[in-house]
Amino acid sequence: MRLRFFFDISNFYQGLRRLARTTSLRFQYPEMSDDFNLASAVWLHSRVTPHATAIAYKNQTLSYEQYACRARDLAERLARSSDWQERTVKPLKVGILASRGIDACVAMLGACWAGAAYIPIGLKLPQDRILAILAACELTALIADAEGAQLLTDAVLAACPPILIRADQVPAANNKDQPLTGNLSEPVQVAADDLAYVIFTSGTTGEPKGVMISAGSAQNYVKTIVNTLGLVATDRALETCELSFDFSVHNMFATWQAGAALHILPASLVMNAVKFARNAQLTVWNSVPSLVGMLQQIKALQHACLPDLRITVFGGEALPQTAALQWQDAAPNAKIFNLYGPTEATVFCLAQVFSCDATITAGRGVVAIGTALGGCEAIVVDSQGAEVPDGMIGELAIGGVQLAQGYLGQPKLTIQKFPMLNGKRWYLTGDFAVRDLSGVFHCLGRIDNQIKVSGYRIELEEIDAALRQISGQNLVGAVAWPFVDGAAKGIVGFVAGSPIDHAELTAALKQKLPPYMVPNRVVNLKVIPLNSSGKVDRRALADLLKIEST
Ligand code: AMP
Fold this sequence. Notes:
Rossmann fold, GMP Synthetase, Chain A, domain 3, five-stranded mixed sheet, binds adenosine monophosphate
């Protein structure tokens, strides 16, 4: 009995020591610690507050203890496999083919626990894109839930890594006789520059590009944001994203860092998000601002309908001032944060709190993106990469510890998008921006053809590539259309030449592109307008749609 007590106490102190190493309260990255495993916070809370809820989904909940045990079991299962043990090339990468839910969380945390990087693969992706991602990643293992398993066609299976695990099935005992590599009773220690995750975004070349985020960058983000927002263990936070959108990194790891509970909104209940938040008495709302517009449209936002919310995080796209005001009315006790950031700078890197005296970006009616978060830097540069004075428009560049390692397997693109300026590495965001005289940054739209539709990042050139390939026409162009309150709501594709079979074209596009990138409409034009440099003139195409709608 006394011996047991000693072990409990020593485990507890071991936990506290690791907490001291992993918390930003005492130390600052990069000097702070030697432990950057994203699973460490869950492990730690499993020791200190084992019965607190870590995840709630549908009618299931996992306490921190249950969550840590399931993640550890999965990590053990990976580590027992001879394919895992024989893989000497680091980093080990684990693909996750799972819809948001408990199995996806366990799969992802299990991969982290084992010291590997996780790579989410969206379930709505067409087979070609899944194959492209599998080919680019050289995975050691793939973990699929029941829904993900339905995508394992013969072609996908042929491209799968040697270890294939069903997350929703009890671990099989076939490899139990293999000794464990290392001690997996706690997460494997990883270094700051080890790969934590890879998230794929739309690419201008027609292929998705994988953004590689290190464990040090991810930990800096998580610790900084928990302090910035003031998240605490009693919080109950909303998850609205799939793992393949990097907003999920914020939702999951910030919540677990605080020892709070993550309440996952089932995809079928998106339109009932307000009711969901009320029933679960959520205190933290995380979503793209587009969701506010959708909820407003169906009149789901009534005065003070969300009284329990104390924190709201909007990010991933511009936050219209009108949406922020509507939200303030619906959630009067919530402090609203507008967070800005590209996937390439680890989720979010600038922030502004919205209040009556918040800075609004003149002429655009959106909340300004604020100032850099701890560990991040922001400057505005001209086309030569020189910093411009305050008040002048240029391109927003981000620096600091949250910069991605680059694009998986694309060193040239990495050097182009992450140049050295004045001896320091920066990421060129492609966003027009200005820093005003009080030091607040404003985002002024895109330099390139990247758009956001309902929070999804889309390169129009990627849709062009698909249109070109399928129609056989060289002159094609995709444009964002229509716009509501300045935000794109859909895509229209244009194809030159003789009439095409629209149903056939759309069916073929669905085979190539994720659903949110498939144009809602494809228009046939005898002549496609070109600009002075001989390229397809997207502005003229958009003007045609404007004329049509008036
Ligand atoms: P993603 O990599 O999907 O997070 O997309 C990053 C891009 O989304 C940025 O480069 C911006 O164009 C846009 N974005 C993200 N957050 C904001 C925000 N709060 N305000 C304005 N634009 C944003």
